[in-house]
Structure formats: C-alpha cells, structure tokens
C-alpha cells in the first residue's frame, strides 16, 4: 500500500439473514504492536452511501482506506472491526499490509 493512496476494500460476510443495513467501522493500523486509527470512508456505512450490497452468498460492503503519508514504510497489519446499528460486533478480521513510499 503506497503512502497517500486510497485503497478500496470490499468484504463479503454472512449476516445470517438479519438484513444488516448499517455498519460502524473501527479500523486500525498495527505496526510493532502499536495501533493507530485508520481513516476510512464512508463511516458509518448505511443506506445513504450504497456501501452494503447483497451478494449471492450473503452480503458485501466496500470502504475506502486512506494510507496516510506519516505511516512507517514497513510490514504490519490492519485490524478491521465493524458493529451493527445495535453496537454489536458483526465483523472482525486482521490482514497483513506492507506500506511503501
């Protein structure tokens, strides 16, 4: 992921037929066990943004992540958590990332 880039992330998930239409995200960069907040849009993801879609095997959503120019050039990870309208954890995952110039 290059600094000053905006990366579109698409995530597929199963809402168990609950009709999820709202997601509030908490996304953090993790480098050397230090977590910093990531800037994403739209947040929250709701019906006004068209970011939640039905998929053949559940749901999917998209969000744009901004790779800040102050992030260190190194390997790390991104921790992504999403909650529904009732503030219940719905999605949680961590992926490896490499920040480049």
From TrEMBL:
<protein>
    <submittedName>
        <fullName>Uncharacterized protein LOC108046363 isoform X3</fullName>
    </submittedName>
</protein>
<dbReference type="Pfam" id="PF02221">
    <property type="entry name" value="E1_DerP2_DerF2"/>
</dbReference>
<dbReference type="InterPro" id="IPR003172">
    <property type="entry name" value="ML_dom"/>
</dbReference>
<dbReference type="InterPro" id="IPR014756">
    <property type="entry name" value="Ig_E-set"/>
</dbReference>
<feature type="domain" description="MD-2-related lipid-recognition">
    <location>
        <begin position="3"/>
        <end position="98"/>
    </location>
</feature>
């Amino acid at each position: 992921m290059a600094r000053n880039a905006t990366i579109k992330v698409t995530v597929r998930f199963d809402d168990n037929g609950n009709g999820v239409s709202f997601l509030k995200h908490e996304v953090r960069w993790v480098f050397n066990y230090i977590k910093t907040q990531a800037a994403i849009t739209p947040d929250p993801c709701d019906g006004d943004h068209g970011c939640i879609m039905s998929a053949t095997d559940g749901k999917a959503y998209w969000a744009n992540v901004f790779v800040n120019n102050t992030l260190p050039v190194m390997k790390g990870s991104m921790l992504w958590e999403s909650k529904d309208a009732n503030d219940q954890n719905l999605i949680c995952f961590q992926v490896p990332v490499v920040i480049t110039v």
